[in-house]
Design a protein that fits this description.
The complex is a heterodimer of chains A (490) and B (452). Chain A has 490 residues and is mainly α. Chain A is built from 21 helices and three strands. Chain B starts with a strand and ends with a helix. The mean pLDDT of chain B is 81. Classes of the chains: A mainly alpha (490), B alpha/beta (452). At the A-B interface, β1 and β3 of A face α9 and β14 of B.
Chain lengths: 490, 452
């Protein structure tokens, strides 16, 4: 590992990140919250100066061509952690303690959407804007933005790009990363603009529309309204959210191909999209049936409303958004169990959503089916196919080990949180919804609860868990390898 | 006919041997000496490179009628065809053995400039078509495809248990998009009418869309015992692969046994429903384990004749219903027959038949000859006099049936009320003797219109 490369790249990113603090400042000026300008100014300047410091620290490298895979992994991990820290600076000035500020900012950047905020009068409007804006940046993947925008990243883009999301598509060599980055950002921006227009038309105030859009398209879930979507009491808004949450959970590459190349066939051919649709439909129908027919259900017999709410909550959990339109804590435990299993499943790879990702689930499913078939035909050669193409055994192994790792990490962190909090349910539920980036679970983390009452250490651990979940483990697990720490001297 | 053939190979031997009796054949090859088995044949031989202009001059290319390139190398064949085309405009036939060449050269829409080779033939593909035909419709006597497979012609043989036996045709209902164009009884072909009855031993000829024809086969002609639902292919080469692909499309559950592991992986990647088993065909334990004897069809298409023979014997022993085998040499056919193989196929034999029927014995506009040449199927433009007519108002003079109407993009099997437009084309079935009369009828109509 060469420190000069690492510090240069992180320095550049932090410097540009400092400039992004201008957006909440504009919002503050627009709403005449002049006192709130100062915290953002501090945050921006701090980020900028620290960036400059790192940039100069070990000598500046402008040619990033020769970046190595492990350096890229290290840079990506550091960037996400540092950005979360700097994003938390403004919150410190609004009366949040250090740990709360960090938790809130990390929840934003990682698109988790878990919140410690119980008193919504604490933040000015620009504060809510900043929370949601961070999610919007995190949803697309911060590095992707830089690959598209900064020429220095063009060469090294490949390394960074695949460090940020571990699941590699089968056609990873068939496109230029920078071109690809432009395209998915284009899709992201189109989705965002149409979401704001749709929300505004459905009757949401403009400021709320923008903030909710940021959280919705990025599958984040931090809403400026204390009661999330439920607070607007508007069914049209719920339907709009259902549509855009669904889209946020679809692979952006597919959306690009449908939008710009008019390639509609890909929708039938893509296994992941099909299973996303099947799982989603199945789960929402199941939830509808459970809450409509369960003997002591509070919303018995209200078919249409239940169906709408089930759609909303299934998507909200599955895409790891974490919005709510009713208090699902009051639902039947059977329905809750369906939703909990969706926390682990997650949305499509290459989308804004978190979790294990459906492509991996489908692979594991087919892997198990193959094992049974091989018992009957021991000499048969049966490849596992995604999108009608065989998945190479090496990638298959990565997928399987990823799933095991995911659960191993889940158990270990769950164990630690349980020890600290002295509560099994709390420990494992908090871990599940932070590792899966959902941000919404069930009591005590349900619609009426929050993370405010957790102990300080748990909050730090869970903050880290969110970033681990967002970066899909690998950049962090590699820390435990001794070779990784070998720092080369010039 | 003067025929120029390039390449000394097994296939060219078969072709030359068959054609030299009635045609004037010249053989060209790089070899200096003609192999001894060719020497017995009455042909002329020129040694030299086909692209060399002196060789082409010696061969008198411009006076030949047909050029066939059938060396073992695809690239040589293509270059040879192109060089011959540059110096004269005779009809060219090019043999290829790779899928990519076959698709690229036989499809005009791929290259921007015209490829120009008249016929691209792929012996293995013809073999696959042949096997597939027998497997998918085992009762059929004769099959022909035209309009790129959008219209098909099947000849059946009526058995005692045919459901519509002794019934007048007007009371018979055949599936939609099919039409019975002719009937052969006691070797005599005639066009049936409503009062014709079908008897056992008759051979009716049907034309129809692929869908209609498969319904016909399923509803009227398939018997439970003969239907093939499961197939085992031994040998996963080009033939096995293409055959499996076709069998998948008609939902026959298929297994392929192939000994090369990387080839297995290729097959498993490209095929979706077929089960690929990695083992050599001569593994007897595997035959028991995979229940090869239960299969309706066992198809031996490895490149090795001995393996094919051994597997055929084994499959017969285990009780497989129908056994197919490929052989590369004609002399082995009797041995395969003795071993109890039901269908013996050789790529050379199939390609020779195709070559003869498609190119050498062809007639202008005639798409197909059936019933030993008694019936013929030809294409004709709809005369502008008939623009807007319905099929039933045509009043064709002779016994002729409009089998297919080709619209700009669509191929339809006409009914009485099908509308004809002047840009359409018709495919007409009639007795070969009447063909000229029918053409005359349409031409006169055209002339009448022009006069008035």
């Amino acid at each position: 590992m060469r420190l000069d490369y690492i510090t240069s790249v992180i320095g550049i990113v932090l410097m540009y990140f400092g400039a992004l603090f201008l957006f909440p400042i504009f919002v503050a000026i627009y709403y005449s919250e002049y006192l709130a300008i100062f915290p953002f100014l501090i945050g921006g300047v701090a980020s900028n100066l620290f960036g400059l410091f790192l940039y100069k620290l070990f000598g500046t490298k402008t040619e990033l061509k020769e970046i190595k895979k492990k350096e890229a992994l290290c840079i990506v991990a550091c960037i996400w952690v540092l950005l979360s820290l700097f994003a938390s600076i403004p919150f410190l000035f609004f009366g949040l303690s250090l740990v709360d500020a960090i938790f809130e900012a990390t929840s934003g950047i990682s698109t988790c959407g878990a919140s410690i905020l119980s008193d919504f009068s604490m933040l000015p409007r620009c504060g809510f804007f900043w929370r949601s804006f961070c999610q919007w940046l995190g949803g697309i993947g911060i590095i992707v933005i830089f690959i598209a925008v900064l020429p220095q990243f063009a060469f090294a883009g490949r390394q960074f790009f695949f460090s940020e999301s571990a699941l590699q598509s089968s056609d990873r060599n068939s496109f230029r990363v920078q071109y690809y980055a432009y395209n998915i950002i284009a899709v992201y921006i189109i989705l965002s603009i149409s979401a704001v227009i749709a929300l505004k038309c459905a009757g949401m105030p403009l400021f709320d529309s923008v903030c909710n859009m940021f959280s919705m398209i990025s599958a984040g879930g931090l809403s400026p309204h204390p009661n999330s979507i439920a607070g607007y009491h508007n069914n049209a808004i719920v339907w709009v959210c259902i549509l855009f949450m669904f889209l946020a959970g679809v692979n952006f590459t597919i959306q690009y191909k449908v939008l710009f190349q008019r390639n509609f066939k890909i929708l039938c051919r893509n296994s992941e999209y099909n299973f996303y649709f099947i799982f989603f439909t199945f789960a929402s129908i199941l939830v509808t049936c459970i809450i409509t027919f369960a003997p002591d259900s509070i919303c018995k017999g209200m078919w249409l409303e239940n169906f709408r709410n089930a759609l909303f909550h299934t998507l909200s959990i599955m895409t790891s958004t974490g919005f709510y339109c009713v208090d699902h804590d009051l639902w039947d435990p059977k329905a809750k169990m369906v939703l909990i299993s969706l926390i682990f499943m997650g949305a499509s790879a290459g989308s804004a959503g978190g979790g294990l990702k459906i492509a991996r689930i489908v692979y594991i499913m087919r892997f198990l089916i193959r094992e049974v078939k091989l018992l009957l035909h021991p000499k048969a050669i049966i490849p596992i196919k995604l999108d009608q193409k065989s998945v190479a055994e090496s990638i298959g192994q990565q997928i399987i080990s990823f799933v095991f790792l995911y659960f191993a990490v889940y158990l270990i962190i769950g164990f630690i949180i349980t020890m600290i909090e002295n509560d099994i349910l709390k420990g494992f539920l908090a871990t599940a919804i932070t590792l899966g980036n959902t941000g919404l679970g069930f009591a005590p983390f349900g619609p009426t609860g929050g993370f405010a009452h957790m102990s300080t250490i748990s909050k730090y651990i869970l903050s880290l868990t969110m970033i681990i979940g967002r970066l899909e483990l690998i950049p962090f697990l590699i820390i435990f390898n001794r070779d990784y720490w070998h720092i080369s001297k010039k | 006919m003067k025929i120029l053939i390039y390449g000394i190979t097994d296939i060219s031997y078969l072709i030359v041997k068959d054609l030299c009796v009635t045609h004037d054949v010249t053989l060209i090859d790089d070899k200096e000496e003609l192999p001894s088995k060719f020497e017995k044949l009455d042909i002329s031989f020129i040694s030299g490179n086909i692209s060399d202009k002196t060789v082409l001059k010696n061969a008198n290319v411009s006076e030949c009628d047909l050029f066939i390139a059938c060396s073992n190398y695809d690239e040589s064949n293509i270059v040879a065809s192109w060089s011959v085309m540059r110096v004269s405009n005779i009809e060219t036939v090019c043999f290829v053995s790779k899928l990519e060449y076959f698709h690229n050269i036989s499809n005009d829409d791929f290259f921007t400039s015209e490829v120009g080779i008249d016929h691209v033939m792929w012996p293995e593909e013809s073999l696959v078509k042949e096997i597939f035909r027998i497997v998918s419709v085992p009762e059929v006597v004769y099959v022909d495809y035209f309009e790129k497979g959008k219209a098909r012609l099947f000849e059946y043989k009526i058995k005692e248990d045919f459901p519509l036996l002794n019934k007048e045709l007007k009371y018979c209902s055949f599936p939609p998009e099919t039409i019975m164009v002719a009937l052969t009884r006691n070797g005599e072909l005639f066009i049936p009418n409503g009062s014709t009855k079908i008897f056992a031993g008759d051979k009716p000829i049907f034309v129809g869309s692929p869908k209609g024809m498969s319904l016909l086969a399923r509803n009227l002609f398939s018997t439970k015992e003969e239907r093939i639902d499961t197939a085992v292919i031994i040998g996963g080469g080009n033939i096995g692969f293409m055959l499996a692909k076709r069998l998948e499309s008609v939902n026959i559950s298929t297994k392929i046994i192939e000994k090369d592991k990387s080839r297995c992986e290729f097959l498993a990647d490209k095929l979706s429903k077929t089960l690929i088993i990695n083992s050599s065909g001569v593994d007897t334990d595997l035959f028991y384990e995979e229940e090869i004897g239960e299969a309706d069809a066992v198809i031996n298409v490895t490149s090795n004749d001995e393996t094919n023979l051994f597997c055929s014997v084994l499959a017969r022993q285990l009780g497989a219903k129908k056994i197919f085998s490929k052989t590369s040499s004609d002399s082995l056919v009797p041995i395969f027959e003795k071993a109890g193989v039901d269908v013996i196929l050789s790529p050379g034999r199939t390609i020779l038949n195709e070559l003869k029927s498609r190119i050498i014995n062809k007639d202008e506009n005639i798409l197909s000859l059936v019933g030993k040449g008694q019936g013929s199927l030809f294409e004709i433009d709809v005369p502008s006099a008939f623009d807007g007519y319905q099929v039933k108002d045509l009043h064709l003079p002779y016994n002729a049936v409009i089998a297919v109407v080709k619209k700009v993009r669509k191929v339809t099997i006409p009914k009485g009320n099908t509308l004809l437009n002047k840009n359409d084309k018709m495919i007409i079935f009639t007795k070969s003797d009447n063909a000229i009369g029918v053409k005359e009828f349409f031409r006169k109509k055209e002339d009448n219109l022009n006069e008035t």
